[in-house]
Amino acid sequence: MKPYSLDLRQRIIDCYTQAEGSIRQIAQRFKVSRDFVRRLLKRHRQTGSVEPKPHSGGKAPLLNDTHLERLRTLVEDDNDATLAQLSQRLEQVSQVSVSTSTVSRGLSRLNITRKKKSLRASKTRTKPIQQKRRDYWSEIREIKPSDLVFLDETGVNLAMVELYARSGARPASLWQQTRQRQKHLHHRGDDLGIWIYRWIEL
Fold it and tell me: What is the CB-side half-sphere exposure of residue 60 using CA atoms within 13 A?
């Protein structure tokens, strides 16, 4: 909070010394707290000054430069870790226990922001993959519908993927992270009404 001006402070002192009201009345008149008026009068009696005390510099940050560099390393190793996870890991490597709010402020000091991740495989946007898609569609256009055998598929994704990550190095492909934990159930039917089921581990 910005300190009150010297002019306001001097006017409060003048009003009190000239007996223009009590501390409560003066506080109401100048729209300040009674505690402020009391502290100002005490400072004026003790030092003869109405100037505000110099700023003490504030509390030193809990995370020093060494802690911040270790925090940066933790983010680079796992940039979708939550603030709670980063706080626990920082305590393990630095023996400093801090809250998630302190971790968040530390990330801000490192200019590490939070961004939403893409759930698509990064390869899908490359030119070779796009060309393969065009070639595939060109190929199946020549297939007659009567020659097709229709399959049905259902699946479940057992992966729990974080939707956000810290900026910096791109996280490992989310497609690779989730691919190993997907199960697909394929079945096909024929004219005899026979169904074949098969679990496929990807």
Answer: 4
Q: Cα–Cα distance between 107 and 115 in angstroms, integer?
A: 13
| pLDDT at position 172 | 47
Whole-angstrom CA distances from 174 to 68, 123, 171 are: 27, 11, 8
CB 115 within 8 A of CB 164: yes
How far, in Å, CA of 20 to CA of 14, rounded?
9
- State yes or no: pLDDT of 167 exceeds 80: no
Mean pLDDT, all residues of the chain: 76
Tell whether the model's pLDDT for residue 38 goes beyond 90.
yes
Q: Say how many residues make up the chain.
A: 202
Domain locations in the chain as residue ranges: 6-47, 65-112, 122-201
| Alpha carbon 148 to its chain's center | 49
Mean pLDDT for the stretch of residues 161-173? 58
Residues 89 and 14: their CA atoms lie apart, in Å, by 58
pLDDT of residue 87: 92
